[in-house]
Write a structure and sequence with these properties.
The protein is mainly β. The chain has one helix and 41 strands. A hairpin with a 7-residue loop joins strand 36 (474-482) and strand 37 (490-496).
Length: 547
């Protein structure tokens, strides 16, 4: 992933090259059309339908993807959200569900606790997910703050995940390889690409060596993914945010490597979105290969797209195109019948379990003494502030696209004077519908002008655009978001006292589609106070629905 040390306008700065890799071209796919990937091995199952890109219209960037037996797993960046590095699970590469997180808590300094400093746009960047068959262990590896790298392991993606090691080398945009002889390697770097070998236990670095220097004619290469395929070593690299390249070595993991372009300025499958890039390669049980990339699709974030890949006779990957573009649809991957239907990515949560579902992530680390689940989600005030961006225990949910609606049923009898609770659309320019308790009375308000500057310091703590008195002790708060890239990208807010009839509140809010914050908008439940701690609200029902 790119960072602020790179040119501010990355698209302009990287517009020095054009063209596409000449490769295989697929015809346009229609629903029900049968097709099989020509590179796939013998298979009793023929893909007889199609899927549509994006396979997930939610913010999952810097993807790493693996297969373990008959199950596919995908990991992504989360930056300042906690827990970090979510893992998704699929049995067919198209339908995905949440499985867990590799980093249970951002234990990398007090700024990730919103304690005297803030970790916005830091934390979990492009990292790596791997599986080691010899010990039946999952590995996560990533660098934090350009300082150190961390290794976490677990016997299953659901956990428990524990920190195995802290390594002094910062493996920027790391890709981990478990070689066929069980040796652990890491490819990493920005423009200067390096390969490190880890000790057998994965706790220390044995050696590291530069293996490639990116030519100035290309610019930046990063986002390493490391593979061994048919005896050759491959490092898959991105040219943010419009290209993909691959290094190949037939002499071993330390090279020498030869470079080839995979794609550049390739039209993507999302109208108004960017070029598919970064991500990783994965092979199906029957030998076919797929590339899961992502496209910039702000204001919603960076969303995964999937395309089949074939290989040239001399061992180079080629993305299969439709009408000289990444296809909007392709035949479904030929895979064994799934053992079950995956859990939906959207729906209703009553917070009746003993823990939060993995679809939820906090804005920075939570204060675990100030929230609970089991009989609804209780959010006690954890921070005295007038600034949403400093408020601890703000709980977030990705916004599915292109349009969706979030509705929260909130019981607010436990609020105290000075408390502020509600439902926000959270990013560096935010708005919310919420409850303000002052002078013994409670109002429902629509607030915008919650803003940060380019250094992620708060520049606006909000302006009340509309308000109304709210009777009783519970209210339904609703936010509708259109995160389609382009001119629309608006959100509206409404409320209800009976859950059936909703009243609009405040003007439409224009969602910010600048890329520099990296993470897309999220729905966010919050409760903080401008007075004294001790108040609380209870969310007894939260629903995210798509048309």
């Amino acid at each position: 992933m790119s960072w602020s040390r790179h040119p501010v306008n990355r698209r302009a700065a990287l517009a020095t090259g054009t063209g596409l890799l000449a490769g295989g071209v697929l015809p346009a796919v229609t629903a029900g059309q049968a097709s099989a990937d020509p590179t796939a091995g013998p298979s009793p199952l023929l893909a007889a339908a199609s899927y549509t890109n994006p396979v997930l219209w939610q913010d999952f960037a810097d993807i790493d993807i693996i297969r373990v037996q008959d199950t596919y797993y995908c990991s992504a960046s989360t930056m300042h959200y906690s827990p970090g590095a979510p893992i998704l699970r699929s049995y067919d590469l198209v339908n995905w569900e949440f499985a867990g997180h590799s980093v249970p808590r951002l234990d990398f300094g007090t700024k990730y606790d919103l304690n005297g400093a803030r970790g916005y746009v830091r934390g979990i960047w492009a990292s790596s997910l791997a599986y080691r068959p010899s010990s039946k262990t999952f590995y996560w590896l990533g660098q934090i703050d350009f300082a150190k790298s961390y290794v976490y392991t677990a016997p299953a993606v659901e956990g428990p995940w524990n920190r195995l090691a802290t390594i002094d080398t910062a493996y920027y945009d790391a890709g981990m390889l478990v070689d066929t002889d069980d040796t652990l390697y890491v490819a990493y770097g920005n423009s200067t690409i390096n390969v490190a070998q880890l000790s057998a236990d994965g706790r220390t670095q044995v050696r590291t060596q530069q293996v490639f220097s990116t030519p100035s004619s290309i610019g930046t290469l990063e986002g390493s993914r490391f593979y061994k395929i048919n005896g050759s070593y491959y490092i898959f690299l991105t040219r943010p945010a419009n290209g993909q390249y691959v290094l190949k070595s037939t002499s071993g993991p330390f090279g020498p490597y030869t470079l080839r372009q995979v794609l550049l300025d390739l039209p993507g499958p999302v109208s108004g979105g960017g070029v598919p890039h970064q991500g990783g390669l994965v092979q199906t049980q029957y030998g076919a290969w797929y590339y899961m990339a992502f496209v910039d699709a702000y204001p919603g974030g960076r969303i995964p797209v999937l395309a089949p890949v074939t290989w040239t006779a001399d061992g180079w990957p080629t993305v299969q195109l439709v009408n000289n573009a990444w296809g909007r649809s392709y035949p479904l991957p030929a895979v064994p019948a799934p053992p079950r239907t995956v859990e939906p990515m959207t729906g209703v949560d009553h917070f009746t379990g003993t823990s939060l579902a993995p679809k939820w992530e906090w804005n920075h680390n939570p204060d675990n003494t100030k929230w609970s689940v089991g009989n609804g989600l209780t959010l006690g005030t954890a921070t005295v502030t007038s600034d949403l961006y400093w408020a601890r225990n703000t709980l977030t949910h990705r916004i599915p696209g292109p349009t969706s609606t979030a509705t929260a049923l909130i019981e607010f009898s436990g609020m105290r004077d000075g408390d502020r609770a509600g439902l926000a659309l959270l990013r560096d320019s935010s708005a919310c519908i919420g409850l303000m308790r002052d002078g013994g009375g409670t109002r429902v308000v629509m607030v915008d002008a919650l803003t940060m500057d380019a250094n992620w310091n708060t520049t606006g703590t909000g302006t009340v655009r509309a308000s109304a008195n709210v009777p009783g002790t519970r209210v339904w708060l609703r936010a509708k978001a259109d995160i389609t890239p382009g001119a629309k990208r608006t959100a509206t807010f409404s409320y209800s006292t009976d859950g059936t009839s909703f009243t609009s509140l405040g003007p439409a809010f224009t969602l910010n589609n600048a890329w520099q914050f990296f993470m897309g908008y999220r729905y966010a439940l919050f409760n903080f106070t401008t007075g004294s701690l001790g108040g609380s609200v209870k969310v007894t029902r939260f629903e995210v629905a798509t048309p």
